[in-house]
Amino acid sequence: AKLVTMLDRQALYFPVLASLNDELEGAPRLPTGATDWQRLAAWDAWRYVRSVVFVSCWHSSLGESAAMWALYGNRGLAIRTTFGLLCQALHQHANTNPPNLDRTVVGGMVTYADPDETSLPEDVWNPVNEALRKRWWYKHEQELGLIYHLHSNVGLPKSSDQLGPTPKQQGVWVSCDLSKAITAIVLAPFSPPFLEEAVKAIS
Fold first, then answer.
1. Alpha carbon distance 159, 138 (integer Å)
2. With 54 labelled, which of 115, 152, 155, 166 sits at a CA distance of 20 to 30 A?
């Protein structure tokens, strides 16, 4: 169903960080000697980022594996592409200096780190670095992430005891020329026979 919608819209779906399963997605790392103010500021910035940053995550690998299919669905399908093709296919804004992140797609490989690893306090203010960083727990995902900012997505907290803002939208569709991006559509090893016919019919 997601593939049909992607092809129909000629777009990629980017869920907001706050909607992902990992509740600490992009959480800040602070040095051992960080002050209370630095910690408070870092976590406040992170709560804001979770409402304005949207991500499209891709599994980066030279080929298929049993682990990949077990993780992402033994009865589904995979879209194969490259980072370079995605960059060409996404409809980008004209280059500006300094770059305007709002409604512009950037991306890179996700780094996996120990939450207690020492880092400079300044690192936590970069929303791209935050969104492209996860805990070691998820290293097996081997993700490449595309990042989309929408700063108008910040809504009011749902309740008085909620610490951060609430995202207005749970996801956005970003225009993409999929005929340029997709090199293959690969069926999972245990997908039903009719799926191949269906994929061929819609693609």
1. 31
2. 115
Q: What is the separation of C-alpha 143 from the centre of its chain, rounded to a whole number of angstroms? A: 9
Cβ atoms 17, 55 nearer than 8 A: yes
DSSP state of 93: P
Dist CA 43 CA 21 (whole Å): 18
Amino acid at 145: G
Helix/strand/coil (H/E/C) assignment for every residue in 152-187: HHEECCCCCCCCCCEECCCEEEEEECHHHHCCEEEE
Distances in Å between the Cα of 151 and the Cα atoms of 4, 52, 104, 148, 164 are 29, 5, 11, 10, 15
Q: CA Rg, the chain, in Å?
A: 19
CA 26 from centroid of its chain's CA atoms: 10
pLDDT of 125 over the 70 cut: no
pLDDT score recorded for residue 149: 85
User: Does pTM top 0.85 for this prediction?
Assistant: no
- Of 86 and 94, more confident: 86
Q: In angstroms, rounded to a whole number, what is the distance separating the alpha carbons of residues 28 and 189? A: 38
Distance of CA 59 to the CA centre of its chain: 11
